[in-house]
Specification:
73 residues, alpha+beta, two-stranded parallel sheet, 2 helices, 2 strands, flat
Length: 73
């Protein structure tokens, strides 16, 4: 999706990590790693001129997704 035609519209749903886990032998956690990957994907899409929206879901992810679905429908 980052290397294709600019016709896509991308939605990135992210959340905070209620529980996080260390990675043996690394100075960062799984949460830090996944946050960095999501941010990198977002920035890569933006740098290619693609339409991308990033939404942080908050602590009630399921409710936030239902509300988002209602807004889109």
């Amino acid at each position: 999706h980052k290397g294709g035609t600019p016709s896509g519209i991308f939605l990135q749903l992210v959340t905070r990590h209620e529980r996080d886990f260390s990675i043996p032998g690394q100075p960062y956690t799984i949460g830090v790693l996944t946050d960095a990957e999501a941010l990198g994907d977002f920035q890569a899409l933006q740098s290619k001129g693609k339409q991308v929206l990033r939404i942080e879901l908050g602590s009630e992810q399921a409710l936030a997704i239902w509300k988002l679905a209602d807004e889109i429908a």
